[in-house]
């Protein structure tokens, strides 16, 4: 009987270890620090913010938020002029950036702020969009 208790404890330990690993590998979706899904949603729906997807073209073609424009993070610095055109030269026009989990969007936000755009919000990841609506 004592051996069965030890085996059960071992199984439980492995189970929790696997949960931790799954979470670390992205099995759990949690907002990235600095992301603001609700503010982003409000800016898009009520203020007409430019919605910018900074994922790869392939990711964008697989799934996207309706109305989003795609400029991959790897091309962002070279394509800042396109963003300026999309906001009609108004550097204070709100821009909402997102990616898969929010990390590339955080980088994109910093690039855009450095380029002079002053209302840039990180939605986070594409999965945070429905969360913003709640």
Task: Characterize the structure shown.
There is one protein chain. With 134 residues, this protein is α/β, with parallel strands linked by helices. It has 2 domains: 1-30; 31-133, Oxidized Rhodanese, domain 1 (3-Layer(aba) Sandwich), CATH 3.40.250. It is built from 6 helices and 4 strands. A 4-stranded parallel sheet has the order 2-1-3-4, with helices on both faces. The longest helix is centred in the N-terminal third of the chain and has 23 residues, at 2-24. Mean pLDDT is 85; it is low at 19-30.
Summarize the SSE layout with pairings.
Layout: H1 2-24, H2 37-47, E1 50-53, H3 57-62, E2 69-70, H4 80-86, E3 95-99, H5 103-114, E4 120-125, H6 128-133
Please tag this protein with its features.
4-stranded parallel sheet, 4 strands, 2 domains, elongated, Oxidized Rhodanese, domain 1, 6 helices, alpha/beta, 134 residues
Helix content: 40-55%
Q: Which oligomeric state applies?
A: single chain
Output the CATH topology of the largest domain. Oxidized Rhodanese, domain 1
| Count of DSSP strands | 4
Beta-strand portion reads 5-15%
Q: CATH H-level name of the largest domain... which superfamily?
A: Rhodanese-like domain
Count of structural domains: 2
- Following the backbone from N to C, one meets helices and strands in this order, namely HHEHEHEHEH
CATH architecture of the largest domain: 3-Layer(aba) Sandwich
Largest sheet: 4 strands, parallel
The DSSP helix count reads 6
User: What low-confidence regions span 5 or more consecutive residues with pLDDT below 50?
Assistant: 19-30
> What's the pLDDT, averaged over the residues?
85
Look at the helices and sheets and give the structural class: alpha/beta
Shape: elongated
Strand order of the largest sheet: 2-1-3-4
Q: N- to C-terminal separation?
A: 49 Å
- Roughly how many Å is the radius of gyration? 20 Å
Give the class-level CATH name of the largest domain: Alpha Beta
């Amino acid at each position: 009987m004592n051996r069965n208790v030890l085996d059960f404890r071992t199984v439980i330990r492995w189970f929790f270890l696997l949960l931790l690993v799954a979470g670390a590998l992205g099995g759990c979706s949690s907002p990235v620090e600095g992301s603001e899904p609700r503010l982003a949603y409000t800016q898009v729906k009520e203020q007409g913010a430019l919605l910018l997807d900074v994922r790869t073209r392939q990711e964008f073609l697989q799934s996207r938020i309706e109305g989003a424009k795609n400029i991959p993070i790897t091309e962002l610095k070279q394509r800042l002029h396109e963003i300026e055109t999309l906001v009609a030269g108004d550097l204070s026009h709100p821009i909402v950036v997102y990616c898969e989990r929010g990390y590339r969007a955080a980088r994109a936000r910093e690039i855009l702020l450095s380029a002079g755009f002053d209302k840039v919000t990180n939605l986070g990841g594409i999965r945070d969009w429905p969360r913003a609506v709640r």
